[in-house]
Amino acid sequence: MTAPEPTESTESTEPAAPDVLDRARTLIATNGLYKGPFVDRDQHRADGRPWRACALCPAGAIALVCGLDPWDWVHLGPPDPAQRAAATALLLLLEHLQRRGQIPVVETHPLRLVGEWTDAPQRTATDVLIELRLAAEYGREQPVPDPDDLERPAPPQSDPTEE
Predict the structure, then answer these.
(1) 18-74, pLDDT tens digit by residue?
(2) Backbone torsions φ then ψ of 53, nearest 5 degrees
(3) Which of 3, 25, 44, 47: CA 20 to 30 A from 16?
(4) In a domain, 112, yes or no
(5) Beta strands in the chain (DSSP E)
(6) Composition bias, kind Pro residues: at what positions (predicted)?
C-alpha cells in the first residue's frame, strides 16, 4: 500500500488520529502484539506473510494503518498526509499515556517512549489494546496534538535487516 499523494490541503486526506488508533488496535488484536521495533520480522521471514499480517507494536500498526512502511515512516523527509497522520496518532497515544502517568514527560523521541512502554516486561497485549482504545476516546474529546508544534530529538535508528 502506498501513501496518498500530497495535495494542496492535507486536512481532507489525513485520517483522524482517533480512527488511526482504533484501526491500529484492530490490527494488534487480530495479529498479536509484538514487543520490539515495529513488526515481527521472524513471522515475515518464516512464511513470507506481509507486514500487515504479522504481530505489531503500536508504532508499526499505526504506520501500516496510514499506508506507510513500518520501517521507513519515521525516517522520511517532509511529512506527506500519511506521515502526518501517523505522527499525529503516535503523539495522541503518547499524550494519553503521559496524562495517565504511564510514560514520563521527557525530551525523548515519541517512538522511543511508546516503544519502551510497550516493551516493558509487565506490559500485556490487553494493556496495549485498552490504552489504544482509551487514547482514541481521549482524542475524540480533546484537541489532538499537532506534530508541527513539537521539537523532538531524532528518531531511534532501526535497521530492518538486523538479526
Answers:
(1) 999 999 999 999 999 999 888 877 877 788 888 788 889 999 999 999 988 887 666
(2) -100, 5
(3) 44
(4) yes
(5) none
(6) 153-163
Find the domain containing 109 and state its range: 12-141
Residue at 80 is within a domain? yes
Helices and strands counted in the chain (H then E): 6, 0
Assess if residue 21 is contained within a domain: yes
Number of domains in the chain: 1
CA distances from 32 to 17, 28, 35, 72 (A): 21, 5, 10, 21
Instruction: Give backbone dihedrals phi and psi of 80, rounded to 5 degrees, phi first.
Output: -90, 180
| 40: in domain | yes
- Helix (H) or strand (E) segment spanning residue 18: helix 17-31
Query: 102-157 pLDDT, tens per residue?
Result: 887 877 778 888 989 999 999 999 999 999 999 999 999 988 877 766 554 444 44
